[in-house]
């Protein structure tokens, strides 16, 4: 057995430095946290060459007593804790007593410090962990520390640093987070003699503006939630303002900037149906809880924390963020005025109405009832089985442009052709049957239908605002919400296809389908083996009579791994299903169909984003139009 050696301080300090001082930004973080623990209200940070040549940090905090200057750089020396019980309720940012000793072991350090009570301050010099002289020094209250030539005595560590610009970016990122975590502290940040930030103490919004700019601030939602013993406050982004990565997410726990996957996932899941795939929400949130309910002593850099009750905290963030998003679910102002504002216009228009006058729509109709039947049903004139329920009007257009509707009082349930030129809702029987089947709430929508642009974008007018609505995205969202609601309440009803849809697969796809029957059933699709590498779809969800099964099967088989039945994947499949079944862009809708779609979007109180995150509606004000035409300059 080899002899056991007791390591010298010059060795174990460098080992410790390897854990605490990973790069220049680690030094900056540790030193600023010391300033904050000293109750500083103004902190100046200056760096040169990405922090490798110089890191200088000054504060106006409580300072260090002259007799404690050397002790501050000894391993495991700290003013933050004194007994083992203190570890159960750590309220300071630093507490390990490793930072200064580790930094001094791999750099050349000078520090000046003075307490309020002292008449004169002190100065200490340390090089590579070796103490130099300690002298009295005239300086202002607080502490100034200079870290020069970082890793000068550990060339292997120096070699693995990134470029000066990359190291500078890492430092800037840390400073950004610490500024957001301490909104009432003023920060001045200087890079290579150039001032980057010179913030005040005016609060969090001022810090956000300083770091990210005006547009960023304008797209944030003020967020707060208190459910004892927990309290959350800060800002989250509107769903229409998101980023392609997570670097704009800042979580502060009891004043400490940390990284926590539990909370990050909870927030991302709350935003799931509001954002396009590959986009991430922005948040700056401060989470306050009892010190006994959190463990910050899980990593040397103190960047990670653990919670005592993870499940409760996940649910708190998820539910409160989701509730707030639902309250701000309109990417634009999609609100209609109430009846009183239109009373005079209603009276004036009683005698003579035109297509461009304001409409008053009461109740609503099932937009799914207006979707085409499956392709297999086109031009088929056969008897259909009787329905147990009261007959429902189902409409479809034939290839020659006529409307096919099921006669409601025909005992043989035959399909009969109706003249397409006739208004769909002139038939009183059809109107009454549809209304009885799916009447919505009694809210009334007032607007003027202008028309359709490119057979894709519906244009309506309300007072001095115009709204441009993507008919496909709007209908897609309605179908998706209905599918999810039925799925989550176990009320997803399937309907048999008159002619099953048959499709063939290759060997790899065959295994995917064969192993995924349970998932397809949960989605409302009954799929049956129909021979070697051949399957047939016998039933589909009853609200998806117009789904393009060619596209649906192709989309499902685009991923040749086993289809997953996780909650997230189920929602993704429903998003695909809704997209394939929704009315398409370029498909001409009648005015009645447009009215029904608008009414359902409004009454559904849905998120005005399709399941894939595209906007459903865009607002254009009269002022903006007049600016375009130079009526207003």
Describe this structure in words.
There is one protein chain. The chain is 30% helix and 24% strand. Among the domains are: 9-198, Histidine kinase-like ATPase, C-terminal domain (Heat Shock Protein 90); 219-327, Ribosomal Protein S5, domain 2 (2-Layer Sandwich); 368-424, no CATH class; 494-541 and 547-581, MutL, C-terminal domain, regulatory subdomain (Ribosomal Protein S8, Chain: A, domain 1, 2-Layer Sandwich). It starts with 8 loop residues before the first helix and ends in a 5-residue tail after the last helix. The chain has an eight-stranded mixed β-sheet, covered by helices on one side. A five-stranded mixed β-sheet has the order 9-10-13-11-12. A hairpin with a 6-residue loop joins β3 and β4 (121-127). α1 (9-20) crosses α3, α12 packs across α17 (591-604) and α15 runs antiparallel to α16. The protein is built from 18 helices and 26 strands. It has 633 residues and is an alpha+beta fold.
Quick recap:
The protein is an alpha+beta fold and 633 residues long. It is 30% helix and 24% strand. The termini are far apart.
Features:
26 strands, five-stranded mixed β-sheet, alpha+beta, 633 residues, Heat Shock Protein 90, 18 helices
Describe the secondary-structure layout:
Blueprint: H1 9-20, H2 24-37, E1 42-48, E2 54-59, H3 99-105, E3 108-114, E4 121-127, E5 130-137, E6 142-148, H4 155-159, H5 164-181, E7 186-191, E8 194-198, H6 204-212, H7 214-218, E9 220-227, E10 230-237, E11 249-253, E12 256-258, H8 261-270, E13 283-288, E14 294-295, E15 306-307, H9 310-327, H10 343-348, E16 359-361, E17 395-397, E18 403-406, E19 415-418, H11 428-437, E20 445-453, E21 457-462, E22 465-470, H12 471-488, E23 494-504, H13 507-514, H14 517-522, E24 526-529, E25 534-541, H15 549-556, H16 567-581, H17 591-604, E26 617-621, H18 622-628
């Amino acid at each position: 057995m080899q002899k056991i050696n007791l390591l010298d301080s010059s060795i174990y300090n460098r080992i410790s430095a390897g854990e605490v001082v990973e790069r220049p930004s680690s030094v900056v973080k540790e030193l600023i946290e010391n300033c904050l623990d000293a109750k500083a209200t103004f902190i100046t940070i200056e760096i040169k060459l990405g922090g490798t040549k110089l890191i200088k940090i000054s504060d106006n905090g409580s300072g260090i007593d002259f007799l404690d200057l050397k002790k501050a750089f000894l391993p495991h020396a700290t003013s933050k804790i004194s007994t083992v019980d203190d570890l159960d309720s750590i309220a300071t940012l630093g507490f390990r007593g490793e930072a200064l000793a580790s930094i001094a072991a791999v750099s050349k350090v000078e520090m000046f410090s003075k307490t309020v009570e002292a008449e004169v301050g002190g100065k200490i010099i340390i090089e590579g962990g070796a103490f130099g002289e300690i002298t009295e020094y005239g300086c202002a209250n607080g502490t100034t520390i200079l870290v020069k030539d970082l890793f000068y005595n550990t060339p292997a560590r120096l070699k693995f640093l990134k470029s000066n610009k990359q190291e500078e970016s890492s430092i800037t990122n840390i400073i950004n987070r610490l500024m957001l975590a301490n909104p009432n502290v003023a920060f001045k940040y200087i890079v290579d003699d150039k001032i980057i930030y010179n913030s005040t103490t005016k609060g969090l919004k001022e810090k956000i503006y300083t770091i990210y700019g005006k547009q960023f601030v304008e797209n944030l939602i003020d967020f707060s939630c208190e459910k004892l013993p927990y309290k959350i406050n800060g800002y989250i982004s509107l769903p229409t303002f998101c980023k392609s990565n997570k670097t704009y997410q800042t979580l502060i726990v009891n004043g400490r900037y940390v990284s926590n996957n539990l909370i990050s996932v909870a927030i991302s899941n709350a935003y799931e149906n509001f954002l396009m795939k590959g986009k991430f929400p922005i948040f700056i949130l401060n989470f306050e809880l009892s010190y006994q309910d959190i463990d910050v002593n899980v990593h040397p850099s103190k960047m990670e924390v653990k919670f005592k009750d993870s499940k409760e905290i996940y649910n708190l963030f998820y539910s409160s963020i989701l509730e707030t998003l639902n309250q701000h679910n309109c990417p634009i102002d999609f609100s209609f005025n109430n009846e009183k504002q239109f009373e005079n216009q209603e009276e004036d228009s009683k005698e003579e109405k035109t297509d461009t006058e304001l409409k008053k729509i009461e109740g609503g109709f099932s937009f799914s009832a207006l979707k085409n039947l499956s392709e297999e049903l086109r031009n088929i004139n056969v008897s259909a089985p009787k329905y147990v329920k009261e007959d429902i009007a189902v409409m479809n257009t034939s290839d020659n442009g006529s409307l096919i509707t099921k006669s409601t009082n025909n005992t043989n349930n035959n399909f009969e052709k109706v003249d397409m030129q006739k208004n769909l809702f002139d038939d009183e029987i059809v109107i009454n049957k549809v209304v009885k089947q799916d009447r919505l709430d009694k809210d009334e929508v007032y607007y003027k239908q202008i028309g359709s642009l490119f057979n894709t974008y519906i244009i309506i007018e309300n007072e001095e605002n115009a709204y441009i609505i993507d008919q496909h995205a709007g209908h897609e969202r309605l179908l998706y919400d209905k599918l999810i609601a039925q799925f989550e309440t176990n009320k997803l009803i399937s309907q048999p296809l008159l002619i099953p849809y048959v499709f063939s697969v290759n060997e790899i796809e065959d295994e995917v389908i064969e192993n995924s029957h349970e998932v397809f059933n949960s989605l409302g699709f009954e799929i049956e083996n129909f021979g070697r590498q051949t399957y047939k779809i016998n039933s589909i969800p009853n609200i998806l009579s117009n789904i393009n099964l060619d596209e649906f099967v192709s989309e499902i088989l685009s991923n040749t791994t086993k289809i997953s039945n996780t909650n997230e994947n189920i929602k993704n499949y429903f998003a695909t299903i809704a997209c394939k079944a929704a009315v398409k862009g370029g498909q001409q809708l009648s005015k009645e169909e447009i009215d029904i779609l608008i009414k359902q979007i409004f009454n559904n109180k849905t998120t005005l984003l399709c399941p894939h995150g595209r906007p459903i509606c865009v607002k254009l004000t009269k002022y903006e139009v007049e600016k375009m035409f130079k009526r207003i300059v």
